[in-house]
Amino acid sequence: MAKKTKTALKDLITALEKHQGVLEDKKSGHGKRDRATAKVRTAAIAYASAVYSRTGGASPFLDLPDPGLDESTVASLKAEKEALVAKQSQKKSSKHAAPEAPAAAAAPADSDGAPSDAAAQESTPAAS
Q1: pTM metric for this prediction
Q2: Smallest Cα–Cα separation from 42: which of 67, 18, 78?
Q3: CA of 114: how far to CAs of 31, 79, 85, in Å?
Q4: What DSSP character marks residue 97?
Q5: With CB atoms 3.0 to 4.6 Å apart as the test, which of 3, 39, 75, 76 could cross-link to 8 if both were Cys?
Q6: CA 102, 109, 127 angle in degrees (round to 5)?
Q7: CA angle, 37 as apex, 33 and 43 as ends, to 5°?
C-alpha cells in the first residue's frame, strides 16, 4: 500500500536535508554524495507515487529540467512526456465513452472485402 502523502513528504524533506549536509561537507566522498542523491530520488519517487495514489494528481517533478542536459535533450524529453500524457488521457476518455452500436448487417464478404459468390447470386435475378 502506498504511503500517506504526509509521511512521504517527511521522508523527502529528511532526504533533502541529509543530501544538502553531505554536499556541504568537504570531507564527503563521491560515494557518499551518490548515495545521498539516490535517497533523494527514491524519496521523490515515493512522494510522487503517494500523491498519485491518494489524489490522482500528476507528479510535481515531471517538468524539472536537469541542468546538465542540453536544450535538445530537454525538448525531446518534454515531447515524450506530452505524448505519454496524451495517450493516458485518451485511454481514460475511451473508458468513459459509450460503447458504439454494432454496424448494420451487410452482405457476406470474401476475405478481400468483395461480396461473396453466394451473395452476388442472390442479388442478381436468375435467368429463365
Answers
A1: 0.51
A2: 18
A3: 69, 42, 40
A4: S
A5: 3
A6: 125
A7: 145
